[in-house]
Amino acid sequence: MASFDPLKAYRQQSARTDSVPDVFMHAYERLAGYLHAAARAAEARDIERKTVEINNALMLVLHLETALDFERGGDVALLLKRFYRLLRQEIAKGSAELNAPVLREAATHALDIRRVWEESLARSSTAPPADSATPVTNPPLNSFPPQGDSATAPSRRWSA
User: Fold this and answer.
1) Cβ-based neighbour number of residue 145 at 10 Å
2) Which domain holds residue 98?
């Protein structure tokens, strides 16, 4: 008799019912989780665990990148492609050097993108109807990824 896995059942149901933005936000959260776990493993010098977590993170970045729609996504898709390339470089550097702070910074970047999705959803849910006289504008492309107050935000060594 097969055992019931409630977490697996929840994930399968979520995959069927979540909106596309929700799926992406969950993916960025999971990516950050893998990177934080890899950072902990790097600090513990647990190479096997770090390798598993890095492989999971890189596979997820690959899935996110292959989901890009350049025809409909335009400049945002191009910026995300660049972001994913730079993120992979940062992950590789942190992994090769067993550098936990670099891996944590990569996790922060993933959560930054998750926050952009969340803010975009919030704006779209409060946006006026399409036939409204108030024009709906997109945020400027140079605001991506989001830049916080430099006194409180983690350092940014690269930008999209």
Assistant:
1) 18
2) 19-124+137-143
